[in-house]
Specification:
about 220 residues; seven-stranded mixed beta sheet; three-stranded antiparallel beta sheet; 3 helices; about 30% strand; globular
Length: about 220
C-alpha cells in the first residue's frame, strides 16, 4: 500500500493505515522502564494504550476527594495529544475499570506477583501507580491501581494543590510514562511541583504514543 505524504501547516505528516505521526515540538525525556534481568542484561519495558482500548477507564468512589482531581488530570493528558491518541474516562462500576484510584497508601494486600510500583513525593502528599505483568513481562494485568494520599495530618493549606499535582503525575504513569523526568520543571519529576503539564511532558507523551511497545494490556 502506498502511503501519502501530507504537508500540514509546515509539518510533515505520514498518513498510513493506523497512526498519524507528527514529531514532538521539543525533545522529550526517557519514558521506558529499565529492569535488571535474572542472569544478567536489562529488560526494557514500554507500554501505551492501543486505540481499540480507549478510553481508558478509571474508577474512583463518587465521594472520594480525588475524583475532581482525577477528572482534571485526564483532561490535561488528553489535551497533550494532537490526534486523540489517548483518552480517559471515569466510570462508576469498578468491575468495568482498567485502573482503580484510591485516596490512601498502598497496603500489603495490594501487592500481587510481578508488581511494579512507580512513586512520587511532594511536600504535602505522596502518590503511587502499581501495575503487574505476566511472568514474561509482555502482558499488563488489569486492574492497575493508582494511589494519592496525604503526608501530613489534618487539612494542610496546600493539600488540595498537591492532590492536583500528584494525581496528574500518577495518571502520566498510567498512560505509559514509566520513568521520571530528570527536570523539576516537569510534572513527571519524582518530586513534582508543577500543577499542569510542561512542554516536555507533552512532547514525551506524543513521542511514546508513536513508538514500539513491549507490553500489551490483558483482558479486563
Amino acid at each position: 500500500m502506498r502511503t501519502p505524504l501530507l504537508l500540514l501547516a509546515g509539518t510533515l505528516v505520514l498518513s498510513g493505515c493506523n497512526d498519524l505521526i507528527s514529531p514532538p515540538r521539543v525533545a522529550g525525556y526517557e519514558y521506558r522502564l529499565f529492569e535488571a534481568r535474572d542472569g544478567g542484561g536489562v529488560d526494557t519495558l514500554a507500554f501505551r494504550w492501543p486505540r481499540q482500548e480507549l478510553p481508558v477507564r478509571f474508577w474512583v468512589a463518587p465521594d472520594n476527594d480525588l475524583r475532581v482531581h482525577l477528572a482534571t488530570a485526564i483532561t490535561r493528558w488528553e489535551d497533550a495529544f494532537l490526534y486523540g491518541e489517548w483518552r480517559g474516562t471515569i466510570v462508576d462500576d469498578s468491575s468495568a475499570a482498567d485502573i482503580h484510584v484510591f485516596n490512601r497508601p498502598p497496603s500489603a494486600g495490594d501487592a500481587p506477583s510481578n508488581l511494579r510500583r512507580l512513586e512520587s513525593m511532594a511536600p504535602e502528599c505522596r502518590g503511587a501507580y502499581d501495575f503487574s505483568t505476566n511472568a514474561a513481562s509482555t502482558v499488563l494485568i488489569r486492574p492497575m491501581r493508582l494511589y494519592v494520599w496525604p503526608r501530613v495530618l489534618g487539612d494542610a493549606p496546600n493539600l488540595d494543590r498537591c492532590y492536583s499535582i500528584t494525581t496528574t503525575h500518577e495518571v502520566g504513569h498510567a498512560l505509559g510514562i514509566f520513568e521520571h523526568s530528570p527536570s523539576n520543571a516537569d510534572v513527571m519529576f519524582s518530586d513534582p511541583t508543577l500543577d499542569g503539564l510542561s512542554v516536555q511532558d507533552r512532547a514525551t507523551a506524543e513521542l511514546l504514543y508513536h513508538q514500539r511497545i513491549t507490553i500489551t494490556p490483558g483482558p479486563r
